[in-house]
# Entry
Amino acid sequence: EGTVVLPEGMNRSLDAYFDGEWHRLQLPEHLGGFAAPPSLRWAASEMLLGANPAALMTAAGPFFASMIDPLVTDEQRERWVRPMVERRWGGTMVLTEPEAGSDVGAARTTATPAGDGTWHLHGIKRFITNGDFDWPENIIHLVLARPHLGPGHEVKPGTKGLSLFIVPKYWVNEDGSLGERNGVVATGLEDKMGLKSSATCTLTFGEHGPARGVLVGEAHDGIRQMFDVIEYARMLVGAKAIATLSTGYLNALAYAKERVQGPDLARGADPNAPRVAIIRHPDVRRMLMTQKAHVEGMRALVLYTASIQDRVWMGKAGGEDVTAFERLNDLLLPLVKGYGSEKSYELLA
# Structure
């Protein structure tokens, strides 16, 4: 009860992804990763997204580990972050609420100190990608909530009042063993188009026992901490859209080469003309070439944006001023997400 059961085919896909160590491309070396540059990571991601987008999104635990790694203490890293990589735990980004929608600052989920260094969360979050699934032994939820520190402390409104918490599906004991089921439960599944093997859930905190969590960094710093995750999500949406368009084009191309219908246009008036593959028909070729041109153009946009991220990544490592490249990346990210998803939908619909 309260657990999403994945189809066996998805479990095999996840096994293959992790056994091939694809998840290590984006990880820093101290977490056992290859520390590959963004351009290589996104080139590989497009191929994986084109083959099985739901599987790549479901396997996001190590990515979330890399995002919070710079924010946590050494003790938190060993207890929560490293197992996300080594034990292949799941991971989620938990922002949206039923009454808030895209207005993250209107979130009402609360976090109250438990007196032992942990916090108790209470509230409902909605549209949480991979909010629950049964493949990993544990799932780490990264939750934005509003801390209530007690009498004499102001509850800050808006995004400035949000903090980031690690909330596991199963509590992790100090020795690394799994403890009891935590009070975060999947209480609903969304009906949706596409990505059907990636469970989008409603998560309820604190109604089925205490939902224990630990604070990441300082209180009221949650939005800033989540910004890298949000940027990654923008890039992911654009890359996924382009990968889907590419896969759609390749399937349409293969079908057009096999499907026989009608004569060649040059012999259209001849009732005895042989039937030809529809790829010989000019309008079919026009539609295929339109898809192909947009696929290659948008792939170039994704990889160009990734190359700018390379410059930021390498520049920071060398102590250089990367302000101009960061601003260019900020400009390109909405284009990758917005144009990529809208145009891909238009050409595939």
Observations:
- Residues 222-258 form the longest helix (37 residues).
- The CA atoms of residues 229 and 332 lie 16 Å apart.
- The mean pLDDT is 93.
- The domain at 227-348 is CATH 1.20.140 (Butyryl-CoA Dehydrogenase, subunit A; domain 3).
